[in-house]
Every structure is written in structure tokens, then in C-alpha cells.
Amino acid sequence: MAELSRNYRVWAYLIFFAAILALPLVGDEFWLNRVAKYLCYGMLGAAIALTWGYAGVLNLGQGLFFGLGAYSMAMSLKLSSHTSLQQGSDKPIPDFMLWNAQPGAAPDLCCITPGSWLWLPFQSQWFGVAMAIVLPVVVATILGKIIFGQRISGVFVSIISLALVLLARLVLVDAQPITNGFNGLTDLGFLQVFGAEIDPYAVSTYYIIAVILIVVLVLVRLLVATRSGLVLQATRDSQTRALYLGYDVPAYQTFFFTVSAAMSGLAGMLYVLVAEFASPSFLDLAFSVSMVVWAAVGGRGSILGACVGAILINTIEAKVSEVEQLVEAWKAIIGLIFVLAVIFLPQGLAGFAHDVMRRIRERRQPAPTLNRELRQ
Amino acid sequence: MTTLALETEGLSVSFGRFRAVDGVSIQVAQGELRVLLGANGAGKTTLMDLISGRTRSTAGRVLLEGRDVTNQREYRIARAGLGRKFQIPSVFGGLSVRQNLEVSLVRHPGVFANLRFGLGTTDRQRVSEILHLVGLADLATADAATLSHGQTQWLELGMLMGQSPKVILLDEPTAGMTQAETAKTAEIINGLRGRHTLLVVEHDMAFVREIAERITVLHLGKVLAEGSVAEIEANAAVKAAYLGTQEISEC
Ligand SMILES: Nc1ncnc2c1ncn2[C@@H]1O[C@H](COP(=O)(O)OP(=O)(O)OP(=O)(O)O)[C@@H](O)[C@H]1O
Ligand SMILES: [Mg+2]
């Protein structure tokens, strides 16, 4: 696995990049808007692959980071929506806060509902954008320090992360006066970037998201190719051996866990730009589990594979949902796909592609080991 | 007097009421190869766990090159200059043989210091050198998980060469090996001596005679005897300890 042709990998990335950049040539704005959401999911899939495939840490609560990113962005956009600006105060106030306000509460963001002051800094959109990354990073760093510092590993990390996302969801729904509870944040304004509006249905918005995804994928792929990335994979295979070589294993795990969280927060932020809402469903267990399925099908050992897996599955899901009889069956279908992938393609589609390439090479070059040695 | 490479003072650990290691004091000089002998369950592996920080001791001290490292975390003791080979070989199965060795060359242990690509020329040369020393050059690109038992042990020894700690603990490096494999392992270990201080657990007396200078015998968690190969083989207490259980060469 480790040292198969680098060329083939580079080509796989280039083809994928070319494909997503070419899509605006073949579809209308509505379709592109939907694909843009899938690209955000693709970033999530890659984030899962980074921790699961490279660090051996299966996070079943990745939705927490996605949600943090999404809500940070949505809070800022909520404040810049027309309705928020027309509540009879000089400062914007989200409509749901007025509905939740105690009689006689001052119609001001500082104190209209308990905790509404938390929204104050989000009047700056850049604060919302920054928090979409900063919050996941801070939470992941603290979590990582605790979890990995205590040498918790394997299934226990999964259970803890699962419990955390459910807990966060409870809090989110419960804090109705500042989060709008179950309803989430809707009726959002547009992000203003240097005077231009990010219109969810503009082709340029699609390009922004596609380019950000490309940059993120390249950076993460380079990151795992560094020595740190190699050591991370080593800790996945044997924490003990890595410790005995003098590597501070928890520091490596925490660092990459945090990178994965930052990617998820970014994905959540971008998702809000095109989907125009944030909802507690982002913290549903089912959503976090779906991400794992995407990565498993695409290939958890491959950043690109997991990303493509996410996009593929969501595309299929959208197609299936068009047929009414299949809407209900979708959960069963996706479950089946997952089981089949785990049994027959443990390394997912990426692993399958990898095997195919290897076979082709070996047929062309009868003595591959010798050739590989000579090249080095 | 020069400082000892490795010293334990009254090192002990209890699991519940059971004292697996009970007041063990040993002194290993710089560059020495010390063999640790003892029946199954004598506490040899546990002693190595205590020295390397895997298990917390309940009493006593561990000094590495004169530095007190008692009960420190494994990676700290490793950075202080200790390496270890496990009884059950432990390598990075998902990485290639070459990558395993690359990881073992620890220039900077921190995560940020390692955000760079590839190895320097000297390090790359060192990796090739080690590949040849442990006889795995032909398997450099193979996944470590696909190696045979003996090859895995050699890779682990190779990783110790890469890490190049001052003191190396080897736990049964020839366990489960064929005679030919054992001979090659003896060769590798002899290549380590001089450059490193070694503490080796070994059962195979033929092998022990081949590599040992001094032997420490552990029995029921205590040091029973210490001396040269000949002295230990003639020692009445050692014979008594093994009598009725097993011969030294078989246990
Ligand atoms: N974590 C533990 N908890 C309880 N008992 C333990 C623990 N670790 C080791 N022991 C016990 O301590 C004793 C010494 O074990 P140890 O593994 O050190 O023996 P050994 O000399 O290495 O034997 P072998 O030749 O079989 O490898 C054994 O009786 C073992 O059961
Ligand atoms: Mg043992």
C-alpha cells in the first residue's frame, strides 16, 4: 500500500479537481447549489479519513465540529438578514428572540433573552467566519488533550465522541432563547466578501467552495505526507512502539484530531452559505454516522477516496429520493452499502482503485519489486 | 568512577498482594551486555516494564546514565536514552519496512518539528545501512505486517539501531526462532554491543553462552545470583531454583 506509484495518486487528485471545476459547464444554478453542499460533505468525509484512516481514531461525533462551524456562520448571517434589522432597534435582533423574550425585556441584543449577549460579537461577519474554525479547534484541542492524554483509545474514543455530540445537541435544543431550539436558524442574510454578496445560487459561489475544497484536500494530503503524518500512521499501528521511540503520541493524536475538527468546522460554515440554514439535525447521531459510512465506502485510508465517497453517496441518495417508493428504503440501502463495503472493500473504493492500478502495473512490469528498488 | 549506564535500586512492584518484582538492584556498566535469566513468571518482563515506564513501581529507583527516571512516562524515558524490544514483536504493520526505519530515526520527537518532508541524506543512508545489517533490504517496500515472525524481530532490532538509544532492553529476542534465525539474531545483537549497553532476557542457554558476559538470575521477583556464565552454571542456588521445575535450557 505504502509506496505504490505517486504518479497515479497525483493523477487521481488532478482528475477529481478538473471534474468539480468543470461541473458548472454541464448544470444549472440549482443543481450546482446542491452539488456545492455535497462538496462540503466531501470535506467532512476527508476529515473523517484523516482521523479514522490515518490516526485510527473513529470519531462518531464529527457532527459536533460541523455544527459549531455551521452555527457560528449562521449566527452572523442571521444578524444580517432583513428581518433581524427591522425589529425596531438600532442593533439587529433575530426574530425568534423577540418571540422568546420575557414581557418587558429591553429590545436589545445585549439582554433581550438570557444569554443573548453571546450574539453581540457575531454582528461582525468575519467574527462568525473566524469562530467557525476557532471554536472547533479550541474544543478539539481540549478534548484531545483530555482523551488522548489519558491514553483512551479505540472504541472508547468513539463512545465518548458519540456521547458528546448527543449532549451538545441536547444543550442546543434546550437553549431555545438563544439558538431557536429545534427550528434552528433560518431566514439568513448573505455573507459579504469585500463588498460582494455570496449568493447561494451563484456559479461564483460554487467555484469558491470548489476551490476551497481543492486547497484543503491538497494541504491535508501534503500534511499526511510529512514526517508528522508518517509518525501519526505509526501511532495508529502501535502506540506503544511510537512511545518507546520517544514520540509524544497524545500530542500527535491531538494535533491531527484538531486539524480534522477545523476541516469539519470549515465544511459546516461553507454548508450554511449554500444551504441557508443551520439546524440541530447537524448534531444528530445519524448524520455523524453517515459521515463514517461515506468514508468507509470511499476509503478511510485515502483523503481523496473518502471525499469522493461522500459526494457519490449523496448524489445517489438525491437520485433515489426522487423515486417516492425508495425514500423510505434509503436507510436500508445505505446500511447495505456500508456492510458490503466493509466486507468486500475494507479499504473502500480508493483501495479498490489502488488494487486495480497495481495489477495493471504488475502486468506491464513482470518484476515490480526489482523495478521499485532500482528507482529508489 | 564513571556513571553506570543503568542502575535500579530496590525496584519493586506489587499487583494486589503479589510482589512480581521485589527489591531488585542491578548495576549495568557502560557498554556491558547483561543477560537476565529466570523461569517463567520470574518477573523479567515486569522488571523491563518498570525500567521503561510502562508499569509504575511501588518502591525503588531507576537511574539511566545517573539520571533518575523512576516512573516517568515512556516517551520521556525513551528520550532520556532507553530503547526496548518487546517479547511480542511490536512494529508498525501498516507502514513499509523502510518507513518503519524512517520513523525510528528520531531527530525531533515533537509534532510541529516534524512538519517537513522526507529525510536528510545522512538519514537516508543510515536507513539503507540498517536495512542491510538486519537483512531486510529486499523487503524494503513490503508492508511490515506481511513479514514473518523472525523478520519482524529483525525489523524491531533495526528500529532500535535507528533510534540508537544508549541503553537497550531486549525481551527474548530469539523466542520462536529457528536455529538459522537465532544465529542471525546473535550476529545482529553482537553488532549492537560496544555501541550500546544491553540488558537481554533470554532462555536459550546456547544463545546465552554465545552472547553473555555477566548474567543476573531472577527468581520469584528477587535477584538470586549474579556472575559469569560459568559461575552461574555452577551455582547451587540457581540449580536448586530450577530443580523440580525445569532445566535452565528448557524454560
Ligand atoms: N499487570 C499485571 N497484573 C498482575 N500480575 C501481573 C501483571 N504483570 C505481570 N504479572 C505477574 O507477574 C509475574 C511475572 O511476570 P513476567 O511477565 O514479568 O514474567 P517473566 O519473567 O517475563 O516470564 P516469561 O518467561 O514467561 O516471559 C507473573 O506471575 C505474572 O502473572
Ligand atoms: Mg517475559
TrEMBL record, chain A:
MF-aspect GO terms: branched-chain amino acid transmembrane transporter activity
Transmembrane parts of this sequence: 12-31, 38-57, 126-148, 154-172, 206-224, 251-273, 285-313, 333-354
GO cellular component: plasma membrane
Localisation per UniProt entry: Cell membrane
Pfam families with a match to the protein in the record: BPD_transp_2 (PF02653)
Principal localisation: membrane
InterPro entries, alphabetized: ABC_transp_permease (IPR001851), ABC_transptr_urea_perm_UrtC (IPR017778), LivM-like (IPR043428)
Mode of membrane association: Multi-pass membrane protein
Record keywords, A-Z: Cell membrane, Membrane, Transmembrane, Transmembrane helix
Protein name, UniProt field: Urea ABC transporter permease subunit UrtC
Gene: urtC
UniProtKB/TrEMBL annotation, chain B:
Cellular compartments per GO CC: plasma membrane
InterPro entries xref list: ABC_AA/LPS_Transport, ABC_transporter-like_ATP-bd, ABC_transptr_urea_ATP-bd_UrtD, BCA_ABC_TP_C, P-loop_NTPase
One Pfam entry name: BCA_ABC_TP_C
Keywords: ATP-binding, Nucleotide-binding, Transport
Claim: Transmembrane helix is one of the keywords in the record: no
Transmembrane segments: none
Record's keyword annotation contains Iron: no
Residue ranges annotated for the ABC transporter domain, each copy included: 6-245
Gene3D superfamilies referenced in this protein's UniProt entry, alphabetically: P-loop containing nucleotide triphosphate hydrolases
Domain of life: Bacteria
Gene Ontology terms, MF aspect: ATP binding; ATP hydrolysis activity
Name recorded for this polypeptide: Urea ABC transporter ATP-binding protein UrtD
Lineage, opening ranks: Bacteria, Pseudomonadati, Pseudomonadota, Alphaproteobacteria, Rhodobacterales
Name of the gene this protein is made from: urtD
